[in-house]
Amino acid sequence: MAEEVILRFDNVSFEYLYKKPILDEASFCVRKGAKITLMGQNGAGKSTLFNLIQGDPKPKTGKISITNNATIGAAMQTIAREDFNLTLEKYFAKSFEITPANLKSQISKVMEAVNLIIPTDKKVGDLSGGQKARLLLAYALIKNPDILLLDEPTNNLDPTGIDHLITFLIMYDKTVIVISHDADFLNCFTEGVIYLDIFTKKIETYVGDYFSVVEEISKRVEREIKKNVQLEKQIQDRKDKVNFFANKGGKMRKLAQKLRNETEEMEENKVDVRREDKTIRNFIIPAQDVVGNIVTIKSVKIIKDHQPIIKKVDKALLKNMHMLISGPNGIGKSTLLRSLVENKNEETKILDGVCVGYYSQDFANLNFDDTVFDSLKSILAEGVDEQTMRSVAAGFLITGDLMGHKISHLSEGQKGLLSFARLVLMKPGLLILDEPTNHINFRHIPVIAKALNEYKGAMILISHMPEFAEKIKMNEYLDLGKI
Fold first, then answer.
1. Which of 3, 73, 113, 468 could pair covalently with 31 via S-S, beta carbons 3.0-4.6 A apart?
2. What SS3 class is residue 327?
3. Quick one: three-class SS letters along 184-200?
4. Per DSSP, what are the bridge partners of residue 63?
């Protein structure tokens, strides 16, 4: 008996008013109980495809079928800012048209499933990045959906959180579709790949674990390139003959026309070779020249058993000093960085006159109503002109067609690259980076690590990716879990 298909796309096309088409007659199906990776370049439309599965927006043409009205739960990349003032209980209540009488019991069950133990009267906005990541998953699970959609679920999770999520997904007996840039995470549980190509707008499906599929795609690209090289040689040979016979006149001219037609057919048969994500250009973040203690930290507030505790420390950063802040999810790492940026606490001070480049894990420092152009222009350091600004932006794959878009219309990956372009243009004396690899395509990460390692100013970094942090020379460490 054939396995039941739970989700099907039949010749689905979709486009936004402000964008080029996302899908062009895309077709695929997902069987019940499958664990699938959704793969594609930054900005290809992976998150949009998730929205289409949920029914909003509707496709331009084609049909999306959900078998037997299967229910859908989605854990997207970020929590909406308008929900930050809600308590956890009120946040979960939003999932229901009519609040169930046993809501607290259901909350407790899904919170336990995602290993998140915090009071339900706590505000959503007060959670750490890792806690918010777990909350998003719990919110998706609260109605026990038949199809679970996860968009970058490992962002902000510490290694313990990622291990717990992998175990949960392996044991979960329903259909799961995941978007993630974490290859090791994906390889642990997925059994197939849906590939969305940003250039053709088509979808391809592959069976096998994540690493096997990536290798299969790479080999296919090699075959396509070789085939095109052979065709190019044949086409050039035909063109040379066309030019020769065309100048002879009479029957030779007719032969030239015949060869010309055959050449055009050969060119049409060339394989449209898959063009993977371009990698961002190597870049340098220029550092403001600052003398003295750029950062002074005399005490930090940590959270243990949901209670704040003040701990005395003695840390100071000069030029060329890089500090890594570590500790489990929820202990107060991001809170410490926000306290520094706000510069209102005498115990955590930034030297007056220092230009601060802040990379917020949720892009809270970006105005989502700004256009990309205005966002870049607003932070230009003295002496940086518009031409330089556009050149820097292009190095981060932010090209002219994106300049007029509102930041809210960018993918999360594009917001991350925009944030790095802003850092280059600011020439900061201090970098404060909170999970700067979140949402960033893995191809770009070595380039970013190299630039941060070569940065000459002071830097404070939080990162849940050990392999990333290890590429950056650190000379100061602050483990909030061990003070």
1. 3
2. coil
3. HHHHCCCCEEEEECCCC
4. 10
Q: What string of DSSP letters covers 57-83?
A: S--SEEEEEEGGG--EEEE-SS--GGG
Q: What does the pLDDT read at residue 250?
A: 67
Lookup result for tokens 């203690």: 293
How many residues make up the chain in this entry? 483
Q: Is the peptide bond before 57 cis (omega within 30 degrees of 0)?
A: yes
Contact of 155 with 136, CB cutoff 8 Å? no
The two counts, helices (H) then strands (E), for the chain are 15, 17
Q: Residue 253's CB: how many other CB atoms inside 10 A? A: 13
262 burial (CB, 10 Å; 0-12 / 13-18 / 19+) is middle
Q: Which two tokens stand for residue 124?
A: 């959503």
- Bigger pLDDT: 133 vs 226: 133
CA–CA separation, 382 and 400 (whole Å) = 23
- Contact in structure between 421 and 376 (CB atoms under 8 Å): yes
- What's the CA gap between 107 and 109, in Å, rounded? 5
What's the whole-number mean pLDDT along residues 394-419? 92
**CATH topology agreement for domains 5-71+145-214 and 295-482:** yes
Q: Give the whole-angstrom CA distance, residue 53 versus residue 51.
A: 5
What pLDDT does 284 receive? 97
The CA distance from 125 to 298, in Å, is 26
Looking at the domain that runs over 5-71+145-214, which CATH code has it been given? 3.40.50.300
Using alpha carbons, select from 335, 363, 364, 330 the residue that is nearest to residue 481: 330
pLDDT digit string, tens, across residues 92-106: 999 998 999 999 999
DSSP state of 307: E
In CATH, the architecture of 295-482 is: 3-Layer(aba) Sandwich (3.40)
pLDDT tens readout for residues 144-189:
999 999 998 988 888 888 888 999 999 999 999 999 878 888 889 8
User: Environment class of residue 248 by beta-carbon count within 10 Å: exposed (0-12), middle (13-18) or buried (19+)?
Assistant: exposed
Tell me the C-alpha distance between 429 and 290, whole Å. 6
β-sheet bridge partners, residue 302: 309
Q: Given pLDDT bands bounded at 50, 70 and 90, which one contains residue 18?
A: low
Residue 360 Cα to chain centre, angstroms: 14
C-alpha angle 198-180-410 in degrees, rounded to nearest 5? 50
The residue extents of the domains of the chain are 5-71+145-214, 295-482
pTM score, whole prediction: 0.71
CA pair distance 45, 40, nearest whole angstrom: 8
One-letter amino acid at 456 equals K
DSSP H/E element including 23: strand 21-31
C-alpha to C-alpha distances, 334 to 339, 352, 373, nearest whole angstrom = 9, 22, 28
Dihedral sign computed on CA atoms, order 443, 379, 472, 451? positive
Hey, what are 71's tokens?
Answer: 């229910």
